[in-house]
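Troubleshooting: if your tokenizer reports a length mismatch, compare your output against this known-good record of 365 residues.
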Amino acid sequence: MQSAPGRPDLLIFAPVVALLAIGLLMVTSAGSVTGLIQYGDPYFHVKRQAVVAVPGLVAMVLLMRTDYRFFRLLTLPLLAAGFVGLVAVLFVGAEIGGARRWINLGAFNIQPSEIMKFALVNYLAAFAAVRKGEIGDFFRGFLPPLLVVGAAFALVLLEPDFGTGVAMMVTAFIVLFAAGARVGHLLAVGLLSLPGLGLLIYLEPYRMRRLLAFIDPWADRMDAGWNVVQSLLAIGSGGLLGLGLGEGRQKYLYVPEQHTDFIFAILGEELGFVGAATVVLLFVLLAWRGYRAALRAPDVYGCILAVGITTMIVFQALLNIGVVTGSLPATGITLPFISYGGSSLLVTLASVGILLNISSHGTRA
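Known-good structure output:
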């Protein structure tokens, strides 16, 4: 018999709300230039972000009060919807920058890969709950979810969206490890995948240029290294306290994708080391409490789902910040809660609501 839920963990709720507030401020500032140039309205992006943030917060609160075990019943429908979306976007998706990642529904765009990220995490949690001790068996417990994740990864690469695909795979590996997969199996698959990943990079000239630019961005600072160089200049010019909110200069079309992929650079320029460190610490706090909720979850499904949701958010943040600071090769991936993006924000806030509900069912120390 299940015990009645307690209070959700406010130390999950608080950093998420704080990150969302910082994100709205930064989208207002970082998106003002492109908003004015492209749409004649400097507040275009923040208006659209707020339109998504409100229902996202409502979804988070509602799901915080909805028993997380309900989503176990939706495992297959969610997974099917994810695959249908990933296939559909290849045929009917809007082409932006040479990639098909969004399906235009008129008033807004939907990004199927964002739905698939949660669908996969939910599937892996449900699979682990059913198989339990069998995850360590390669053929019965490890290979089936690996094939599902691999199929999703392949479809995301066809868009192409290498960054999201990598984030999806790493998250899946961490979730499988938490579910009991053998380290040897994970290492073997990882090592066998390296030649394939290397080939994917080699066959796409832009990926190869990004890799070379990561090694020495200043060698080609006017072309392949431009993104990272301008990002580092923005962060460096911020100093300790920053130039002030709205006072940044690199958003004037120097830093690319200043309100999406590289918004952390504008944040570092305008809010300085203190602002950037605050954002990092908020993600650290979210990671700590998220994994704590996983450890205290009353069942395997809740534990693995909490691990998956936390990893999904925190690893994406780590990947984005690593790219912006030149610590990782450039790849197009947004910063959760901070970057402009409708589907990503809505799915992430809803996922946090589920994580909050898991925390409310946790055992007390």
